[in-house]
Specification:
The protein has about 290 residues and is an alpha+beta fold. The protein is about 35% helix and about 30% strand. The protein binds zinc ion (ZN).
């Protein structure tokens, strides 16, 4: 039986390596259904969602991890966000008529990979930027972790028609390796994994198959889900920044202002009364009038 959407952490008992496994089924399908993404982009978003959940689970921090790929090819922007309690959302900007058999490099054409950590308590956010290097999402993320965080990380990602999955291994930053070759040994063993194993086999069996001579402790799974943080209140404060005159001009032209969330595609509508309320001295967000 295939497990539900979840993330499972594990550690090697006898060496300083930790890991995570993630499986996204309804989370991924829910996210890609919201826009008319071409097939190749659905797969790429699946890989990025899995990768961001794997990374978020390595952090000791409460807030959101935002993974941004700023490409120069057919895809100009890919944004995936994962909260520390594993709520995921994603969005993308791409050329119309993008072909499904385009290469990875033609898709992104260089550019940058940006990871931002936004603490939920409103504290200082942290951002790391590295050039896009690699032939796959897994390579890009591993390069990012090494260059920006000085952390040895290896990632394997696989997408099937109904799920996006991944495995991450990381050298534990604070602990020295007993045997300096252990990291390479473990990565080599993990590299024998096939995509079908990653998408089709449950964690305990998979880890035993890959590392049968190592003692591994597998922790209880954590649920992963789709979650968009947009709200009528957030959209209203964005409109406020545009200024009342522009808003009123737009209203007289169109009768109402419509804003769609670029992540979940939720539509928010504001009429004259709503806009008056947004700009009134005591600002409270209008009760939303949402519709899909
Ligand atoms: Zn949204």
């Amino acid at each position: 039986m295939i497990a539900p959407d979840q993330l499972e952490r594990f550690i090697f008992e006898n060496t300083a390596v930790r890991g995570n496994l993630v499986r996204l089924n309804s989370t991924w399908l829910n996210i890609i259904e919201r826009h008319d993404y071409p097939l190749i982009l659905r797969k790429l978003i699946g890989e990025l969602l899995a990768a961001s959940a794997l990374l978020a689970a390595t952090l000791k921090f409460k807030g959101s991890l935002i993974l941004q790929i700023q490409g120069k090819g057919a895809i100009s922007l890919l944004v995936v966000e994962c909260t520390s309690d594993l709520g995921l959302r994603a969005t993308a900007k791409w050329d119309e008529g993008i072909s499904n058999d385009i290469t990875f490099n033609e898709l992104l054409g260089g550019g940058t990979c940006v990871i931002t950590l936004v603490p939920e308590d409103g504290g200082q956010s942290y951002q790391g930027i590295v050039p896009l290097e690699g032939e796959s999402v897994a390579q890009i993320i591993a390069n990012y972790m090494l260059r920006s965080e000085q952390l040895e990380t290896a990632i394997w990602l696989a997408v099937s028609p109904d799920c996006a999955t991944g495995m991450l291994l990381q050298k534990m930053p604070e602990q020295p390796m007993h045997d300096p070759d252990d990291w390479n040994r473990v990565v080599q063993l993990a590299s024998t994994i096939h995509a079908e194993e990653l998408t089709g086999i449950e964690a305990g069996i998979l880890l035993h198959r890959l590392f049968n001579e190592d003692d591994i402790r597998l922790f209880d799974p954590q649920p992963v889900r789709f979650q968009c943080t947009c709200s009528s209140k957030n959209v209203a404060s964005a409109l406020r920044m545009l200024g009342k005159d522009d808003m009123m001009a737009l209203l007289s032209e169109r009768g109402k202002i419509e804003v769609n969330c670029e992540f979940c595609n939720q539509r928010y509508e504001f009429d004259t009364i709503d806009v008056e309320q947004i700009f009134s001295a005591e600002v409270s967000a209008p009760t939303s009038r949402m519709r899909h």
